[in-house]
């Protein structure tokens, strides 16, 4: 089921999520809804709190960006184990419609998480999928991509976003 994506500054986007204890039918349903919602919005990643569920769950599917082969992941209680290298990339976010900002991230990451079956996994990602992972991991901590900017860059991005929102509201 496609759910509504919360738009910044919704408070759910600025609060850390809680770890999942048990992967039950509710969590499995949440994961299905997250994939449905992400695909309809043509996104490449989604965090559970973006659809109003404060749990540490993210989904990634890089198919819209034509990664070959696409990276498709369900990550529950994900942690960054190691990050290497630096890369700057212009990111978008489904919770900030119309805004894109350049953010610095690790180029390669090693992560640990539980998969949808509750099995512990360790995964290495590089390039675009690594960027998506770090963006979604921030969401789960209540951090958005504008929080990765400092000083005037952050102020400019928020000003631009306010303008976009005003335009959208005018229709
Ligand atoms: Ni986002």
Describe this structure as you would to a colleague.
Helices cover 29% and strands 30% of the residues. By secondary structure, the chain is α+β, with helices and mostly antiparallel strands. The longest helix has 20 residues, at 151-170. The chain is globular and about 45 Å long. The protein starts with 24 loop residues before the first helix and ends with a helix.
How would you concisely characterize the structure shown here?
The protein has 171 residues and is of the alpha+beta class. The chain contains 3 helices and 5 strands, in the order αβββββαα.
Set out the fold topology:
Layout: H1 25-40, E1 45-47, E2 57-61, E3 72-92, E4 100-114, E5 120-126, H2 128-140, H3 151-170
Antiparallel strand pairs: 1-2, 2-3, 3-4, 4-5
Nickel (II) ion (NI) binds next to helix 2.
